[in-house]
Write a structure and sequence with these properties.
eight-stranded mixed β-sheet, globular
Amino acid sequence: AEIWSNNPWADEQPGNEQRISVKRPALPEVEAWLKDLETRYPEFAKVFTLGTSQENRPIWALRISNAAALFPASPGETPEEVDWFPAYLFTGATHGNEWLTTSFTLYFGKYLLEQMRTSPQVALMMTVRTLWLVPVVNPDGYFRNQRQTASGVDPNRDYPIPGQPDKLSDPCIMVLRGFAEKNPLKASLDYHTQGGMYFYPWSYSEDEPPAADKPFFVYVTDNMARFMSYKSGQISKLLWTTAKGCSADWYYWKFHSCSIGSELYQGYPYYLSPENLYPELEKNFTPAMFYLS
């Protein structure tokens, strides 16, 4: 099924590179892509609507898991009810104008599902992991091609921080918070553009994370950065400023999860040609697989 102007399944067409156009995929195209993956990989993939934005746009998620291989559902039981394994959360377009992150999460979902069909090692890994992909966290901002939400809020400055647990957030962030509260979140990776970085908490403070956790954060982000020749480090120190209310801080503080962020690409992605866009995204598959493992 042709979803975008360049067929996303071009690997099924000999001689035609797999690629997407440099334009931002529209929200209906994102939905179509996810549902096509669900149709192609019904044993692994399922599409959910986590909630809606302030302007009632759906926030789509793709759940990828092979847990049913270990724990088949009983009659009348859904696969979700048997899948009690910790959740990994990959998010894109928290900032609505960072569309490259949406393209990445869509293509990575396709890549992972292909690997689960062809690689016994990857299929085995995903029997004890559940990956949730949310390509567009901020659909109102994405629709407008702007960083902020419909109400002008920066969504990655809108999560609670230690000391303000009852803070209310923009509707799209409340949806993500509600999702995380209902799932045993093990790790989260929030994708942004375009600084070429992998970073870990804290963002709201220059204080380092607890000594028991920092070595693992360093190990994870340093190794992911090496795959890409990116920078790595603590958010507030790598960006030379504190930023209160980012997702990595909240997930880590709330769930003690291995929650980090990434700045994809080093440069201005609008200058990427269709021929160069997919190879740029593909390079990031390796650190993403490392993170899942």
